[in-house]
Structures are given as structure tokens and as C-alpha cells.
Amino acid sequence: MHIPPFYKKTTWQAFFIGILTGVVIGYMFFLYVYGQHTERWIEENLTLRNELNQVKQENELLKQDKDDLNRANEERLTIQDIELDWHNADELDLDRFTLHELNENVLQELQTVMGRNIQSVSDQRELLIRTIENKLYNIRDIRYQLEVHHITISTTLIITVKVHITSS
């Protein structure tokens, strides 16, 4: 079998050169379009990565803010301070030292309430009242018994106490 010598004719040579030129131009066009597409894809990818990093940072900040707010809310829902108001201290002419000693003794009795949940303290307020009322406080050989007149339960536990001097 013999291949005809078309490559020797100028019309066929022009045709083959045209095909070769078309292939080269097509390949160049393909490289240009592919390069543009890849460049666009890389820019979009970088943009999305930057947005993702920003969203992650915002998410971390929001989580941290949420944790801080939860801690703050938790602190607001616990007993943080105890205040005692003396209802009839002026009537009994109790001096400041005696009131200070009574105050310290009652606060020492109520120390277990500090930091506890407001709801649990509210549920056990009768026990809290009995704890204060059932104890006799002995200061300078005088016995004092306390009566809880009013109790307010919030982040600051406010107890209004009436003082009675008991006979020994």
C-alpha cells in the first residue's frame, strides 16, 4: 500500500499549515481561558478564605461574649452578700460593739449561704430563719435571742432582725 504524496502539493501544504496554525491558536486560546478561569477561582478562593476566617473570629468572639454573659448571669443568680438590719437595736440601747459581735456571729452562721443559688436559698428560707432564731448568742455574759422580722432574698440577702434579751 502506498500513501499518496499530498504533502508535496501546495494546496495541501497550506491546508496542513492552516490546521497546525489553528491547533496552535486554539491551544493558546485554551491556555488563556483556562488561566483566566484559574485566576478567578484563586481570587474567589482567597476571598472565601478571608471571609471564613472573619466569620470564625466573630464566632469565637460571640462564644466568648456568651460565656462571659453566662458567668455574669450565674453570678447574679447567687447570693453574693448578706446584710443585717437591726429592728429594735435603738430601743434596747445596744452599743456598737455588741451589735458588731451579734452581726459577726449571725454572719458566721449564714456563711454557708454565700455563693449558693437564689432559688435553693428561697426554698430553704424556713431553715434559714430557724437557724438564726434557735441559737442563743452570748456576748459579755448577756444572752441574746434573735427573731427574724423580715427576709429579702436576692443577690444580697437582707435580713431584718429583732433582738430579745433573755434571762440567764
Provide an overview of this structure.
With 168 residues, this protein is an alpha+beta fold. The protein has 4 helices and 4 strands. A 4-stranded mixed sheet has the order 1-4-3-2. The longest helix is centred in the first third of the chain and has 67 residues, at 10-76. It starts with 9 loop residues before the first helix and ends with a strand.
Helix share, percent: 55-70%
Largest sheet: 4 strands, mixed
Looking at the structure, what is the overall shape?
Answer: rod-shaped
SSE pattern, N- to C-terminal: HEHHHEEE
Strand order of the largest sheet: 1-4-3-2
Strand count: 4
Contiguous uncertain segments of 5+ residues: none
- Sheet-strand content, in percent, reads 15-25%
Q: Note the total helix count.
A: 4
- Overall pLDDT confidence: 89
What is the CA-CA span between the terminal residues? 140 Å
Radius of gyration: 44 Å
Helix/strand/pairing category? alpha+beta
